[in-house]
Design goal:
Blueprint lengths: L2 H7 L14 E7 L8 E7 L8 E3 L8 E5 L8 E7 L10 H9 L3 E5 L19 H15 L7 E11 L1 H9 L6 H6 L1 H4 L2 H9 L6 H8 L7 E7 L9 H5 L5 E6 L18 H9 L5 E6 L15 H8 L15 H19 L4
Parallel strand pairs: 1-4, 5-6, 5-7, 7-8, 8-9, 9-10
Antiparallel strand pairs: 1-2, 2-6, 3-4
Length: 353
């Protein structure tokens, strides 16, 4: 989503644990480190509070979810799940999933990645793509050191989920290595014009230093499970690095594709080719792969209200694609399917160690 959509946006199971009603919710900021700017993070977590809830993220276009702001966290330690949004997105995009996870006993943290979020698309952060995985590592550091924020976190039960460019981000945490030189060498043929324009905006392949930074090992050994939601650009990760990934990975792709050439202003019109690529090259014994019926690329984002597409189109022409699902599909049903798959996967991958 681009800047013209910002105004519209701003108007507004883990079997070992019991289910919680409205989760606690808190926002905080991690201080700047070196040249990296402050990092805004949103937190959902289990709470036994019975205080009045608010409808988080409710806008004229999007459905909100009940949370109890700044509630006292329930006792831990608990597994932690990191959420990484797509290019031009923000923490609201996967808030629906965060609420589901917190209700099952997980602590959930979603940063707004500087340079690639709705709220900040400025250079030089935009062209330092390798900082995205490091953002998530900073979040882990902060939550382990400050249990008062969202409750005590179990350091050996940490997972990460990413949509679109967020899926690429979490695969980097698992040890994926990105070959910017190979990507840009034959970009139009392999990826298509929409991808290539986005790569250029992200500074991919602009010089030797950036290619080296993108190709470096950005893994974090504390990550024990990964979920990708119609990721992109997965095909830029080397097959060798994917084959060496040690942690369990659940790869969920859109059941149908948006044609990149008719995707209007879709930021990084990922296709499920990237998900197929991951499934082909990740270790088969620790990888699960499925296409989600009825899902297009943006079906993994928050629920749209009736009439939302027309409202968004009026405010930001071309951006109504974020409310598009496959013909006849129901996004709420897609979310239920995705959530069920994720809960089963994480319940096994992050079982009490």
């Amino acid at each position: 989503m681009r800047t013209r959509l910002i105004a519209l946006v701003l108007l507004a199971s883990f079997s070992a644990f019991p289910a919680f009603a409205a989760p606690g919710f808190r926002q905080t900021t991690i201080a700047a480190t070196g040249a990296r700017p402050p990092l805004s993070i949103s937190l959902w977590y289990p709470t036994t509070s019975t205080a009045e809830s608010i409808n988080l993220g409710e806008t004229p276009a999007f459905v909100g979810l009940p949370v109890i702001r700044d509630a006292e966290p329930a006792p831990g330690p608990r597994p932690l799940i990191l959420l990484s949004h797509g290019y031009g997105g923000n923490w609201r995009n996967l808030a629906w999933l965060a609420g589901e996870l917190a209700a099952k006993g997980y602590v959930v943290a979603a940063p707004d990645h500087p340079g690639t979020t709705t709220f900040d698309m400025r250079s030089p952060d935009t062209i330092e793509l390798w900082q995205r995985p490091r953002d998530l590592s900073r979040v882990i550091d902060t939550l382990l050191a400050n249990p008062g924020l969202a409750g005590s976190v179990s350091p050996d039960r940490i997972g990460a989920i990413g949509h679109s460019l967020g899926g690429w981000t979490v695969m980097e945490l698992a040890g994926g290595r990105f070959d910017a030189g190979a990507v840009m060498n034959d970009c139009p043929r392999v990826f298509g014009p929409v991808y290539c324009r986005t790569f250029t905006a992200l500074g991919v392949g602009r010089d030797a230093a950036s290619m080296a930074a993108l190709g470096a090992d950005l893994g974090d050994a504390r990550i024990k499970a990964i979920v990708t939601l119609d990721l992109g650009p997965g095909r830029g990760l080397t097959s060798e690095s994917l084959a060496a990934v040690k942690v369990p990975v659940l790869v969920l792709g859109a059941g149908e594709n948006v044609d990149p050439e008719t995707a209007e202003k879709a930021s990084i019109a990922a296709t499920n080719k990237d998900s197929f690529y991951l499934a082909e090259h990740l270790p088969p014994t620790t990888t699960q792969f499925a296409l989600v019926p009825g899902a297009l690329h943006f079906s993994f984002m928050q629920l749209c209200k009736p009439g939302a597409a027309a409202l968004i189109e009026e405010e930001a022409p071309g951006e109504s694609i974020v409310c598009r699902d496959a013909p006849g599909a129901d996004r709420q049903a897609v979310h239920r399917d995705v959530s069920d798959r994720i809960m089963v996967f994480l319940g096994s991958a992050l079982a009490d160690r």
